[in-house]
Amino acid sequence: MSDWRGIAADGLWRNNPGLVQLLGLCPLLAVTSSVINGLGLGLATTATLVISGVTVSAVRRIVRPEIRIPVFVLVIACAVTTIELLMQAWAYELYRVLGIFVPLIVTNCAIMGRAEAFASRNPVPAAAFDGLAMGLGFTAVLVALGALRELTGQGTLLDRAELLLGPLGEGLRVEVFEGYRGFLVSVLPPGAFLGLGLLIALKNAIDARRGARPVAAPAHAHGHGAA
């Protein structure tokens, strides 16, 4: 039986795609100028991970090893196309904001990596849960980075929430700093790099504090000294 707690811990923290594997950085850095942008792309990526993981796991015994990679790409492309059409139908304005980065989910290395490393070797329930955990971990990084950049860039949170939530999102905008004139660097690409660096540093500091990272053995422990 699969280690469900281990799968969840890997996706959400220990092996987080955005903070540890450092995969999918192009959309992560490009669209996270606000919480809603990050959440929208994160949910689309999570859906792709779950759908592709389930499909790859279901067909893993009937796909020949020689053609498994093209099959995985086809499965991921079909999932992304379906999600893209749904976004055009139900969240068109958000789809326009995210632009090319929605179809580019097909090329996200994290999705292909999970299909090859996990879904193709595990049963459907475990593959679905792994996709969900990895997707939620990636979404959490997108939302955290979007919140950091939006807050420091324009002093708000959940700006234009109606793009994702429709009428339910109206009125959710929070003016954290009234009269804030903004910090342009935060909403530009350099701000994304700085924000991601801070998040990675924070995770490493937490891991070090909790003793999660192994301590290297002293050099003299592996020998008897110099000749």
The tally of structural domains comes to: 1
Structural class designation: mainly alpha
Q: Approximately how much beta-strand content do the residues carry?
A: under 5%
Q: How confident overall, as mean pLDDT?
A: 90
Give the strand tally.
2
Share of helix, binned:
55-70%
Outline the secondary-structure elements:
Blueprint: H1 4-14, H2 25-30, H3 35-59, H4 68-90, H5 92-98, H6 109-117, H7 124-154, E1 156-157, H8 162-165, E2 174-175, H9 184-187, H10 189-210
Antiparallel strand pairs: 1-2
Could you characterize the architecture of this molecule?
- With 227 residues, this protein is an all-alpha fold.
- It has one domain (4-210).
- It contains 10 helices and 2 strands.
- The protein has helices at residues 4-14, 25-30, 35-59, 68-90, 92-98, 109-117, 124-154, 162-165, 184-187, 189-210, and strands at residues 156-157, 174-175.
- The chain has a two-stranded antiparallel ribbon with strand order 1-2.
- Helix 1 (4-14) runs parallel beside helix 7 and helix 7 (124-154) crosses helix 10.
- The protein is globular, with a radius of gyration of 20 Å.
- The N and C termini lie far apart (51 Å).
